[in-house]
């Protein structure tokens, strides 16, 4: 059976450079027979513990999709050397139990193999990748990180004004290697 990888893009922007970056990884995974899908989470509400139960429909849907995946791959912008709020909000919802009130029970993220990548400014997303790696190193969720903090790429300076970025061959190769390492990590 082919492996299912769910992609989570930490930017809701239609022309997101991180979404563009993810396409190279998707192509590399699909070339090896894996299935790739994008998690649509724009309708997940802001987390409020008062509204946790009954589970909002959008939350149940994203949990089911992530829970059914063999691995997730996060492509995220860096906001203020950290993760965007929309992404942290999603991860907070995903970190809560699959079954209502089953505290300590499994979550959609439990035991999941996780890969990280980011395209940003000069930092190459080192800040956001480090902080995401920290979340997935939290012993409670027992995650395996593929290639540590993953692939970091730098936006061409003109990309900020033109909205167009050229991705380097080096970045594409790094993503292809990370895709191979991800598939090796979840091989039967
Ligand atoms: C609120 C905000 C904070 C940002 N902070 C950083 C930062 O700390 N480091 C960085 O390299 N780029 C930073 N940027 C620039 C982003 O890297 C850039 O906007 C990028 O295109 C966002 O990713 P996207 O194209 O996938 O939406 C920031 C952008 C925003 C909107």
UniProtKB/TrEMBL annotation:
Pfam families, A to Z: FMN_red
GO cellular component term, pick one: cytosol
Top-level taxonomic group: Bacteria
InterPro entries recorded: Flavoprotein-like_sf (IPR029039), FMN_Rdtase-like_dom (IPR005025), NAD(P)H-dep_reductase (IPR050712)
Residue ranges of domain NADPH-dependent FMN reductase-like in the record: 4-140
MF term (GO), any: FMN binding
Protein name, entry field: NAD(P)H-dependent oxidoreductase
Organism in which the protein naturally occurs: Bifidobacterium vespertilionis
Lineage summary: Bacteria, Bacillati, Actinomycetota, Actinomycetes, Bifidobacteriales
């Amino acid at each position: 059976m082919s492996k299912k990888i769910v992609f989570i893009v930490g930017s809701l922007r239609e022309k997101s450079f991180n979404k563009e970056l993810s396409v190279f990884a998707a192509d590399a995974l699909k070339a090896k027979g894996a299935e790739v899908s994008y998690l649509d989470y724009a309708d997940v509400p802001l987390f409020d513990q008062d509204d946790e139960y009954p589970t909002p429909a959008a939350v149940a849907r994203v949990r089911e999709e992530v829970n059914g995946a063999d691995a997730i791959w996060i492509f995220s912008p860096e906001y203020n050397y950290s993760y965007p709020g929309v992404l942290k909000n999603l991860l907070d919802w995903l970190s809560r139990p699959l079954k209502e009130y089953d505290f300590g029970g499994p979550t959609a993220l439990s035991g999941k193999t996780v890969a990280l990548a980011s395209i940003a400014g000069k930092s190459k997303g080192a800040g956001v990748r480090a902080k995401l790696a920290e979340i997935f190193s939290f012993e409670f969720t027992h995650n395996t990180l593929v290639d540590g903090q993953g692939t970091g790429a730098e936006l061409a300076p003109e990309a900020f004004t033109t909205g167009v970025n050229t991705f380097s061959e080096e970045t594409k190769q790094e993503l292809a290697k990370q895709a191979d390492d991800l598939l090796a990590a979840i091989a039967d």
